[in-house]
Structures are given as structure tokens and as C-alpha cells.
């Protein structure tokens, strides 16, 4: 065998061996328990590509519907109705900066309730830099009292383990912490269940440190940790930069420098294993659940969870067949 042929063979074997290490393994108890009750996010246009969510997701999975600026409320409500009709809990986004006024907010709430039976929502500032109307923050949406009047049972807010320069342009977290203290106070004066769904990250350490810091500061809001599902490395880096992912971005940058990993899709195996181990060792941690961002597609994300999280990833249709 010539030198070039031998080098090519060795390179291929290295790739195959690496791929075997990343292939789904039977879920350990920690990961299975940690993934139990996970939530996932879709958009109307991505939901249209799924014939039946029962073929992908466990029964009762909470499905967030992301409201991207410019999406018609009718499309959002129709998607919510369809997914709820398939037996899932639906949590639509309410992006404050995209909502014109209190009348519009009341109309959205009424339509979600009346047409789709929705009683939970994720309240957030939204992805556009300037407000289109009267609101710029989730706190303002809460202060209208409309969700309380409508009897919403669960309200989630956004969390930022690695900071948010839209809120704190100087790179600190003074404004974020002030907002969290306000939201902590809100939890004491409402019957709604409140939790934080966080921006995705690629390393467990910054998330754990952030959760510990919040708890030390008297914040007791449960954390649903954002995790990016399997995707091409280039796709993840693009989303990470656009969404302002902080220190854990270096995990992707380091991976991009390794040719044996560059050609393989990223999976969240390492970060989930570390988080699951931490939760098992520290059951009183604010970290409560996992929220999946299917950046590489909802089907690939759901399949990876099914293959790696044991019964926590068993799709509803498969469970029904026994």
C-alpha cells in the first residue's frame, strides 16, 4: 500500500472511530432523568414540515412556538391549535417589541385561548432592536394584568446565562439582575407557575455558575436550560453569533479547528451529560429542565433525544403502540 493510500485509510479510520464515539449510546439514568419532560421550540413554517408531532415527541411535551417578527398572528394561532390538537402543551411566544399596544395584546390572548385553548406563554422582549409600539419588555406585558385576567396558568420568561448586550450594553449584568429581582417578586404575587427558559449554550460550567449565582442572590425561579440540538457546525456558529452566545462559543471554535470533528454534526451529548451529573449531585439546583432549540431541524433533534434519552425521548405514537 502506497504512502498516500495508507494515510487516507488512517484518516478514514480516525473519522469512523470518532463517529462511533459520538453515536447514540444507551441512556444512563442521569441523562434519562434530566431529559424527562424536556420542551422544544418550533416556528409555523417548520411545523408545517412535520406530518404528525406524535411521531417525534413524547406525550404531553411542551412545544414553544417562536414568534419571529413579521409572522402573522393567524399563522401562530393555527399552529398552536394544530399542535395542541395532537396532544401537546403549547406555549406561544409573546415578543413585547412586536406588539403594538394593550388592545393588540388582549386580542392575541383571546385568540390563543378561544381558538386553541392556550393558557401558557413565554414572555420576552423580542428580537427586534426598537419597539413597534408601547412595549419593550416582558415586565410591561406582565404589568398589563391581561394574562392574570385571562387565567393563564404558566408564564415563562427569558434567561441569559452568558449575559445579554441588548439589555446590558457594557457587557455586565446589572440590568438583567434588576429585571430578575422584579420577576422574582412577581412570582410571590401570582398564582401562575413561572420559570426561565434560557438562551442556548455549549458548555455546562457557565450555566451552572450562573444558576448558583442567582440562587445566592435570592432568585428562586426554576431554570429550563436552553440546549442546541444536533446541527452542522457552521449552522451553530452562525446562530450562536447572531444570538449573542458568550463564553461557551469557544467550544464550537475549538471544534472547528479539529478536522476529525469538523465534518461531523455537533450533538449536545457532552453539555447534557455534565448538566445531568450536576443535577444528580445537586438536586436543589435551580436547573430544573431542558429546553431544546432544534437548530438543525426538529426531526433530527427529536431523533437524537429518542436515541439517547431512553424513555424520556419515547415518541407518543411509539408509546401508544407499546
From TrEMBL:
Name of the protein described by the UniProt record: Methylenetetrahydrofolate reductase
UniProt superkingdom: Bacteria
Stored Gene3D superfamilies: 3.20.20.220
Listed GO MF terms: oxidoreductase activity
Lineage, uppermost ranks: Bacteria, Pseudomonadati, Pseudomonadota, Alphaproteobacteria, Rhodobacterales
Source organism per UniProt: Pseudooceanicola nanhaiensis
InterPro entries assigned: FAD-linked_oxidoreductase-like
Keywords tagged on the record: Oxidoreductase
